[in-house]
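Weekly puzzle thread! Below is a chain. First person to post its structure in token form gets bragging rights.
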Amino acid sequence: MWEHQSLFRVSAQLFAEGVFNLLDRSLRPEVFLLGLASGKETDAPQAVIIEPPTLRYQPLDFAGIKARAAALEANAGPRDIVYHLHPGDHDRFEKQHWYELICQATATTLDELTAARHEDRRSFCSSPVSLQGYLVVIVLQLAGDCYGSYHVLPKPSASKPGNLPHAAVLEFLHECTRALREADTADNDQPVLDRDYNEVLRGAGRRLMLRAAPAGTHGLYDACNGIAALRYEGDEGVGTLLVARRQHPALIPVLTLETPVTLRDHRSIRKLLELTEGDSALISDASQVFGLGRLVTETDTRYEALFTVNFTHHFGWEMSHSGHVMMKVVSNTPRLPQSRVEADNFARAVGQVFPTLPPPDIDYLWELALTATSQPNGTILVFTAGAADEARRLARQCFRVVPRTLLPQVLRQATNIDGAVLIEPNGLCHAIGAILDGLATDRGDSSRGARYNGALRYVNSSRYPCLAVVVSEDGWIDLLPGGSANN
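Winning reply:
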């Protein structure tokens, strides 16, 4: 299609991995390009091009997309006629309408292909970009089981994301199409994808928060960040905000302000948060705060699931819907909620690092990991085959203990101090309070704290198979395999 299509596809793949690995590594993103030649018959050579050509799909699989798009237009029936003062405006409208039909036809074709091949993948495609005589569609596929495990808001669409992964998909595809369009109009035809991964997720967070605003009001995401950044008389901002239109029937007023306070007045809102406790919360339509109220019980006929913003600590807040946490934001960086480690995910990670470990030992390590997740101040467990050697090597920066099988109640006490706990795969503990070392790695995340990045450096540099369980103060939990398991 064009000279640098392979380079762009690889860049888009790396870009997708960088973005979606920050959300959930189990999403396993895969990117490929689909080119539909303009003005050529579908059975002509080069009518359909797939990049990379070695992909499991064949050009013939997509040969009928244009015909399917034309059928969608024919079956849609009469549509509203849009009159324009300038003929060019009408042409642009018709072209955009055709691109939307191509996108729908591509998505339907991909769904049929994955279903026929029993592939548990969710497919998303961008609006086509006209480039060098081809309509180029960017296709992103994610692991279906992981993507489907997150709560979805009602009636998602291209403009209304169903959850944070969906919002990230829309932001990613938007960024890719922007790069292609800019490359087509610039002297240098190499598309550039250089946006910071966390900035892409911030854009996704803003998209998701638009679903919470009753009238699609912009600015709710940034207002919540501004409020969470403030303290009141030295205390962290903790409180609840219910987002709904004014006089919503599911809300019971408790205290109504005579003059509503604009949400841009962060200091006043931070002060008003002190009024909230129990089931009472500030009521806002994403533009103003009207006062204090509470939601009726679920058994009430007026009940409706509303969006809730919980300010959890300094610089931290989370957005919920119908009892499901949709997004956690810390220091203006959104992430998916990961309050607990799932048993099957943990067993899978342990099995990858220690393939010969018997099931009873895996179950015991799982019990220890569960105990660690209850530590409110955060901690690190390092399960490593070299626990004894590492305890000796780090003797000046840890408390070595007489090797013993660590009981959960003892672990709870051992994690009350800073530092990691070094444990053999069979459950023998060799050190507590260990300050981990390691070489810098490009897998680091500047939005995360020293505990996460220190553990990541350690497992990346370890010469022993190891698995770090990182429990952060903000409630995030990560499983970090390393050592020879990465080789």
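Puzzle host: Confirmed. Bonus trivia for everyone else. The first strand starts at residue 30 and ends at 37.
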